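Summary for the steering committee. The consortium agreed at its last meeting that each partner would contribute one worked example illustrating the joint modelling workflow. Our contribution is presented below. We chose a case with several input lines so that the handling of multiple components could be demonstrated. No manual editing was applied between input and output; the record is shown as generated.
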Amino acid sequence: VQLVQSGAEVKKPGASVKVSCKASGYTFTGYYIHWVRQAPGQGLEWMGWINPNSGVTNYAQKFQGRVTLTRDTSINTAYMELSRLRSDDTAVFYCARVYWNYEEGTFEEFDFWGQGTLVTVSS
Amino acid sequence: DIQMTQSPSTLSAFVGDRVTITCRASQSIRSWLAWYQQKPGKAPKLLIFKASSLENGVPSRFSGSGSGTEFTLTISSLQPDDFATYYCQQYNSYSYTFGQGTKLEIK
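What follows is the complete predicted structure of the assembly.
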């Protein structure tokens, strides 16, 4: 199993960034993809998830209206787009794979992570 | 939203020590709690899931316990490779929350 993310980005305030997460080694549509933000020297912040099978998404309230999660099942890739960037959006963004436990009706833990993508927002 | 309060924020210990990190949830999350280890410049690594299940390949000196709102991660005998930052994470709902993290430092 591998999740390989796109490379580092430098953006100006007010711009948008789109980070990709390419999955391999498993059935892409069988697991949800979640996104996590980590500002420099700070903790982990959950941003939202996408069901690659259906395209259904759920976003953390903090990012509602600024984040868009999409996927392209033809190339086993998920995307996270964050708009109206600010300097405090400078962070490493991670994607992670999560299984939906049909028996329990709940998500499970993040068992595989991408390597992270540094997004720097600076004028 | 469910809040996760992790303590301590920093912990200094010697190699060979037994250490415990605590995580409290603002409401019951049953056993839907995971622990991750993160080293500088790396993605977090899953250690424990469902509060007490050890991920494949993780040394048995790591253990987790708890249910409801109180959880602990214990490292029975610290090794040099264990000095890192540890995070708890709840996944009881459609939204996830992480604890603030515990930085484990060498004394």
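Chain A touches chain B through 21 residues (CB under 8 Å). Chain A has a mean pLDDT of 96.
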